[in-house]
Amino acid sequence: MSQYTFPSDNVIGFQTNMSTYNEESDFVKLHEETIVENEISLDAEIDNFDPIVMALDPNVVIASTSNSVVSNKFYLLDGHHRWKFAKIKNNINKLKCILVNFSDVNIKSYDFSLTINKDNFYNILLQSGFTKSKNQELSLYFDDEEFSNSKYQNINELYDFKKMLQDKKIILPILKDIKENNESVTFTPINPSDLISLEGLLPAKSTWITPRL
Fold first, then answer.
1. Regarding beta strands 27-29 and 73-78, do their DSSP bridges make them parallel or antiparallel, or are they unpaired?
2. Which of 152, 148, 158 is nearest to 109 (CA)?
3. Measured distance CA(136)–CA(51) in Å, rounded
4. Helix, coil or strand: residue 8
5. DSSP readout, 184-201?
6. How far is residue 24's CA from residue 70's CA, in Å, rounded to a whole number?
7. How does pLDDT run across 11-43, given as a tens digit for each residue?
């Protein structure tokens, strides 16, 4: 295991591989669905893949002087398509991996663009029970405004609405580094602690997690 510095985040990770992974004893939690259009071709060479990025269990902390880690619980941060490919090919053990301490994980909401005009989107929000709000725990942000809906009591329910918008192609992920833009649609981001408690998978492109490659 060797140190790896994420240049954009100034975070130290630890580069290793999944060669000792055992599906029966090791737990790797995923948090997002994958995008069908972005699936990796089945004839790809796994040896050419960039490392996946995983967080350790919060109770396990690697010091900068560490040369090994003892843990069997991990949270996949970046690399869901690579993980899915390796699992289909029964080649998880061939994946390269960078481990980070859970305390170094930060999460933002992914930016989405509209495929319809603003007025139509406002109508969808109104018909779905959203109203303009301020400083609510769970919200949608658009056109420099915050919108919330009292029927959504947790992050999974809010992201179910997001998934509906994605499935209907009303919003599309902006596939580049996130920048502040009041023309985009964003949602309350999950907290790092939600990675532990989430049930099921969030819609694709629900999170912008750092550190990342």
1. parallel
2. 158
3. 37
4. coil
5. SBEEPPPPTTHHHH--S-
6. 16
7. 889 999 999 999 999 999 999 999 888 899 999
CA angle 55, 56, 59 (to 5 degrees): 140
Length of the chain: 213
Rg (CA), the chain: 19
Please identify which residue in the block is written with the tokens 């790896």.
4
d(CA 147, CA 167): 20
pTM (2 d.p.):
0.86
Q: Is the dihedral of CA 174, 6, 87, 107 positive or negative?
A: negative
Partners of 53 in the β-ladder = 78, 98
Unique residue bearing structure tokens 């109104």: 126
Extract the tokens encoding 41: 């071709």
Hey, where are the domains in the chain? Answer: 2-105, 108-191
DSSP, collapsed to helix, strand or coil, labels residue 120 as: helix
C-alpha pair distances (Å), 27 with each of 30, 58, 117: 10, 14, 44
